[in-house]
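TICKET: design request
STATUS: open
ATTACHED STRUCTURE:
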């Protein structure tokens, strides 16, 4: 289970264009590592990963999540640039990054962290890094062609998306890959982020 910002059809289609371009490079070169590409329907921004959650705990999670975001104002987030973790030279995860609005998304994630911590969900020790996962490399290894393809798109302006709600998501694994389903959606409110931080400190 995880908390996410879901992307609209336009954003998913724009990201799918970038994936198709990388896949075409993969087919043409024959040297790129084998990548498991994420289905466009599954493109999203993870706010917090929760792991396995018992069904009877879901209502408490939903209430805490709703309280966390009720006072957070909606904002615009720009998707910009392609990259990879841990590096483009030896990738494991290929992603689309964020620019304008990334700080607001990090603050939103902090509100969610604080609200769910009393329920026993550990707070993330690593700094929040907003991204949309596009693909995962099965056998990571150095590949100059992939590094070049990612470098060429490191600053590409993709589009801006509205962030007006967060979703509690369930992930079900199948032979065809992960299937995500929304358990609940909670709209962002009209308050200030500083007010929400004070409530959870």
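STATUS: resolved
RESOLUTION: sequence designed for all positions
ATTACHED SEQUENCE:
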């Amino acid at each position: 289970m995880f908390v996410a910002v879901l992307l609209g059809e336009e954003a998913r289609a724009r990201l799918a264009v970038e994936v198709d371009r990388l896949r075409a490079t993969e087919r043409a070169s024959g040297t790129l590592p084998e990548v498991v590409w994420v289905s466009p329907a599954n493109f999203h921004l993870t706010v917090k990963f929760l792991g396995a959650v018992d069904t009877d705990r879901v209502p408490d999670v939903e209430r805490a999540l709703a309280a966390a975001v009720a006072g957070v104002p909606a904002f615009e987030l720009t998707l910009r640039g392609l990259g990879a973790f841990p590096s483009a030279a030896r990738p494991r995860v290929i992603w689309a990054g964020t620019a304008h609005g990334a700080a607001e998304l990090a603050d939103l994630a902090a509100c969610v962290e604080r609200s769910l911590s009393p329920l026993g969900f550990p707070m993330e020790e690593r700094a929040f890094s907003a991204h949309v996962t596009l693909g995962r490399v099965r056998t990571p290894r150095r590949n100059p062609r992939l590094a070049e393809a990612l470098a060429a798109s490191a600053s590409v302006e993709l589009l801006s998306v509205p962030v007006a709600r967060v979703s509690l998501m369930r992930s079900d694994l199948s032979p065809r890959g992960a299937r995500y389903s929304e358990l609940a959606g909670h709209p962002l409110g009209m308050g200030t982020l500083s007010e929400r931080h004070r409530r959870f400190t």
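CLOSING REMARK: The beta strands are 2-6, 35-37, 44-49, 75-85, 93-98, 132-137, 157-163, 165-174, 177-187. The helical segments are 9-29, 58-69, 102-116, 144-152, 193-199.
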